[in-house]
Design brief:
Layout: E1 19-23, H1 27-39, E2 43-48, H2 51-61, E3 65-69, H3 77-87, E4 92-97, H4 102-111, E5 115-118, H5 123-134, E6 139-140, H6 145-154, H7 168-178, H8 183-190, H9 194-208, H10 213-222
Parallel strand pairs: 1-2, 1-3, 3-4, 4-5, 5-6
Helix pairs in contact: 2-3, 3-4, 4-6, 6-10, 7-9, 7-10, 8-9, 9-10
Length: about 230
């Protein structure tokens, strides 16, 4: 079991090969990641050496997922993530960082990243995070869990009016998402269809004024609706 992710995921993303792009200014690490990710079945379509190159390459190649280093020359990874998400909305971004820094995590969330890993995690955990991102799920290193809780306490835009509170069923969905379940896993545990789960999520996003799963969970934890283990 991979304990360093929010969810234990070992499945492939359907039957399609995930097109992965790497962005890291350290050549040795970049080449090592390329070999490892290829061995895990990913199609590594490009390798960027800095943030500017990462944005341009992502726009040109439209990969499914970008594995993005936080600290890079020319443009840092968080800003590169923001620009990639704006230019290529269908491309998911997983951030890699040297330290569990709450400010980096907060900025990465706002930039639209859907995965946050520290660099001492295993290649299997990175592979799982890439698959989760491709499926629209979120992966988080445990080293960043405390930072996430700190970020929750900082958020001040969460609605508190009674007419914006989620239903009991939506609370159940939120808690499972907070526990790291994917859409299919939520559907299985609640004995409902994946379409119904997505409908619940759409309602949750609207009520909590959230853009994605990560923001919804942060808002829900702050409001005391769900808890993070």
């Amino acid at each position: 079991m991979a304990t360093t992710l929010v969810a234990d995921v070992s499945r492939k993303s359907g039957t399609m090969t995930i097109r992965l792009m790497l962005a890291d200014d350290h050549r040795m690490l970049r080449e090592g990641l390329s070999r490892s990710m290829s061995e895990h079945g990913f199609d590594v379509v490009g390798e960027a050496r800095d943030g500017v190159e990462a944005v341009n390459m992502a726009y040109s190649l439209t990969p499914d997922v970008v594995l993005m280093d936080v600290s890079m020359p020319e443009m840092d990874g968080v800003e590169a993530c923001r620009q990639v998400r704006m230019a290529v909305p269908g491309t998911k971004v997983v951030m890699l960082t040297m330290h569990a820094d709450q400010d980096v995590l907060a900025n990465a969330i706002r930039a639209g990243a859907c995965g946050y890993l520290v660099k001492d995690c295993s290649t299997e955990e990175i592979a799982d995070a890439v698959r989760m991102a491709s499926n629209g799920d979120t992966a988080l290193s445990p080293q960043l869990a405390a930072s996430m809780l700190d970020e929750v306490r900082k958020l001040d835009q969460a609605p508190t009016r009674e007419d914006r509170v989620v239903t009991k069923r939506e609370e159940e969905v939120l808690q499972l998402i907070a526990d790291g379940c994917s859409t299919s896993e939520v559907a299985e545990q609640m004995y409902i269809s994946q379409k119904t789960v997505k409908n619940h999520l759409a309602s949750i996003y609207q009520k909590l004024d959230a853009r994605d799963r990560t923001q919804a969970v942060l808002q829900a934890v702050r409001m005391g609706i769900v808890s993070l283990e």
